[in-house]
Amino acid sequence: MTSSISISGEIEEGTHAAIRAKFDSSGYVVLSLLGQGDLIDEIVFDMNEIVQSGDFRTNSGIYSYNDSPRIVEAWRKSRAVHRLAFHPSILEVVERLYGSKPRPFSTINFLRSTQQPLHSDYVHFGTVPHYRLTAAWVALQDIDPDSGPLQVVPGSHKDPLFCYSDLGLKPARSLSEVKDLYSQYENYVISNLSNLDYPHRAVTPQLSKGDVLIWDANLLHGSPACKNNKLSRLSQVTHYHFDDVEIFYNPSFSQPKSKKFVKRNVEFIPQDVYPL
């Protein structure tokens, strides 16, 4: 059982204090969006229409672990997906946590579990200053515990910055090398969890429709345990960077500890101009 903090409209100072305390200690916080059932139902309707049309983009096969598509940038086709990415309560919480304006740059909509091993988003999206990245994962239905629910490792956000050079690996020069690097990173995470004296282990928050899990850039998360991948696990994650970022870089091609960065182009989602 995971207790969530209910939010609706302007958030009181005491509630913000509780959110910050949980986020700082665990690397994530679970919120409950009150009165947003209609918006969530609209997203589910739109995603069904998009899937039936067959006209959608999916994420790279490098990070796919089953046949269920992860539908990327559905905000371009669904006004409801776009609205959730800019939900004022989520933006308020994130801005207060990071002290800078959040800017969404990616939406991913899930139909079923990804079955992806535990990982940190920061291994994908590097920034200078470091860790100027967060994500908000929203349950679009009550999440069945057998459906491959989201798992997190509380406290793992406090682990040192991971660089591929820590494993004696050189930066990638091609997409095939990116896949090889990432596979070695996944094995590294599993080894740390299994063999080292980790003070934290993966937990599975119980998430209901309208719950939002906001996680730190360095928090380990994933959905490796799935008993029945035929069950739906409807959800949407939005990734955010911040106004104070100086450099966006790709960790697979960079050497952060030597300050050698291969810059990454970021296309932020427009807030006021909704594409037709």
What does this entry look like structurally?
The protein is α+β, with helices and mostly antiparallel strands. The protein has one domain: Jelly Rolls. 25% of the residues lie in helices and 19% in strands. It has five helices and twelve strands. It has an eight-stranded mixed beta sheet. Strands 6-12 form a two-stranded antiparallel sheet. β1, α1 and β2 form a beta-alpha-beta unit.
Radius of gyration: 18 Å
Q: Tell me the strand percentage band.
A: 15-25%
Q: What percent of residues adopt helix (DSSP H or I)? A: 25-40%
Order of helices and strands: EHEHEEHHEEEEHEEEE
The fourth-level CATH homologous superfamily is q2cbj1_9rhob like domain
Strand order of the largest sheet: 1-2-9-7-11-5-4-3
Could you give the count of β-strands?
12
The CATH topology corresponds to: Jelly Rolls
Largest sheet: 8 strands, mixed
If helices are DSSP runs of H or I spanning 4 or more residues, what is the number of helices?
5
What's the domain count? 1
Describe this protein with a few key phrases.
two-stranded antiparallel ribbon; single chain; 12 strands; Jelly Rolls; 276 residues; eight-stranded mixed beta sheet; 5 helices; alpha+beta
